């Protein structure tokens, strides 16, 4: 991972709070929770049931969408 990405990640983490300690991103961001980009990258859909208690997960009945700035960065920038 590039130093600029590490810096951005630390900046994003520093501006937010996560009650679950960013566990969905996995240790070292090696095994983050499964998500997919939908609507041309405008939304992130959670693909794991364990995210029901996540404060950034929004249930729309037909799916659960992620509003976590960190998870958004990992998907859009690093494609993970």
Q: Which of globular, elongated, flat, extended, rod-shaped describes the shape? A: globular
Number of separate structural domains: 1
Which segments are poorly predicted (pLDDT under 50) over 5 or more consecutive residues? Answer: none
Mean pLDDT, all residues = 87
Strand order of the largest sheet: 1-2-4-3
How many strands, which pairing sense, and closed or not: the largest β-sheet? 4 strands, antiparallel
Please tell me about this protein's structure:
- The termini are close together.
- The protein is α+β, with helices and mostly antiparallel strands.
- The protein has helices at residues 3-14, 69-78, and strands at 35-38, 43-46, 57-59, 64-66.
- It has a four-stranded antiparallel sheet, covered by helices on one side.
- It is built from two helices and four strands, in the order H-E-E-E-E-H.
- 18% of the residues are buried.
- The protein has one domain (3-78).
- The longest helix has 12 residues, at 3-14.
- Helix 1 runs antiparallel to helix 2.
- Helix content is 28%, strand content 18%.
């Amino acid at each position: 991972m590039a130093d600029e990405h590490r810096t951005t990640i630390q900046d994003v983490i520093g501006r937010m709070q996560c009650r679950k300690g960013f566990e969905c991103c996995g240790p070292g961001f090696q095994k983050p929770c499964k998500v997919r980009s939908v609507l041309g990258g405008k939304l992130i859909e959670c693909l794991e049931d364990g995210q029901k208690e996540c404060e950034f997960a929004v249930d729309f009945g037909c799916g659960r969408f992620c509003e976590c700035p960190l998870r958004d960065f990992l998907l859009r920038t690093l494609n993970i």
